[in-house]
Amino acid sequence: MNKLVYLFILFFSFHSFSQNNLENLLKKYNTESVPYIYVDSLKKITEKVILLDAREKKEYKVSHLKNALFVGYEKFDLKKTIRSLPSKDARIVVYCSLGVRSEDIAEQLKKVGYSNVLNLYGGIFEWKNQENKVFNTKGKETEKVHAFSKEWGIWLKKGKKVY
Q: What number does CATH give the domain 32-162?
């Protein structure tokens, strides 16, 4: 019985520690100038949401959230992106692998007057880690997720990593 209790405490501590590490990682890279939206909250939204994928094209091609628009990061074109957005008060959620690059893109949108922009906490990795669907460029569900790099890929716990 004592071993079982010890294993439970060890598992719980490890799980809490790894969640805490993601929080620390995001605090290290983000200023939180754009509010986060968490996966469970995004799933509950019933009105129209515009999803913007702020990863590179090769990442987007492997998988993305359903109906997400590719905007990229390295070659992000603000003027082109604005043309695909209906209004400055549209509800927009920007995501990337974990939520670092997406904050940069979301900041640019806020600077030009978009008022309802959110950053997906944990990005597509957290979306998939919570067993939500991702889709390839043919619109078919896939288990594959581009893990960006071996270093960042440790945060993707579910699905099939592609590099």
A: 3.40.250.10
